[in-house]
Amino acid sequence: WTEGDPMGEARKLMERLEKKFDKEKYQMVATGPTGSSRKLVGAMLVATMVKNEITAPAVGTTTLYPVVRSILEIGGQDSKIILVENGVAVEYAMNTLCAAGTGYFLSSQAKRQGAEVEDFGKIALTSKHPTQLAARCTVFAESDLVHKIQMGHTKEDIIAGLCRSVVNNYLNNVGKGKKIVSPVVFQGGVSKNIGVVEAFKKALGCDIIVDENGHLMGALGIAILAGKGNKKKVFDFSVEDMVF
Q1: Across the strands, what pairs with 73?
Q2: How many CB atoms lie under 10 A from the CB of residue 22?
Q3: pTM here?
Q4: In degrees rounded to 5, what are phi and psi of residue 90?
Q5: Is residue 169 classed as helix, strand or coil in its secondary structure?
Q6: Of 20, 142, 175, 179, most Cβ neighbours within 10 A?
Q7: In sequence order, which residues have a C-beta less than 8 Å from that of residue 8 and are 6 or more positions away?
């Protein structure tokens, strides 16, 4: 969570890193931001390399899973699909402005249901009759959700329906017209929701690979790229060096 202040959060992160790592044992050899506000944070860090949120996660994922063909990613504020051939990203798509297929949508609905979003997956798997919800639009989905609650649908069925709704929105929006070929890797913060994972398996009819660090693939990818692109000597770094 950047709380609308990505620059400030980046500074806090570097402060934590300074406290965590002993400079006599560790040296910083490269820095690289990716994702939202990457250019601003990159300028602040005087970064070795700056890459977008397609290239970085693709590199991270293909490094760990060289045979991957389809990368499905759902994060807190966006979702994307990356198609891979011979270890190289050849096609991609991102979600539109609608948030119905993102982690934020699940997080906001968790509050409505009085549940922790981290528990959504386990709760969803207990449902025997998932509620059918509108999947194309956040506004319609929320309106439909309120209606189903009024009709007496159980929390378990509604939560399972929300997980399916996210998957349906993703496939109808981000994945529209794309040929999703196995092996498939599902990543991003929402990949930790087993309810969404199971919904993807049923919708695609194939197994889904979920790495325990799937939410960090972009960070892994930009670290690899920045490390390879570093032409400088090892340098000392302190928060005071950050340019604002």
Answers
A1: 80, 187
A2: 6
A3: 0.84
A4: -115, -15
A5: helix
A6: 175
A7: 2
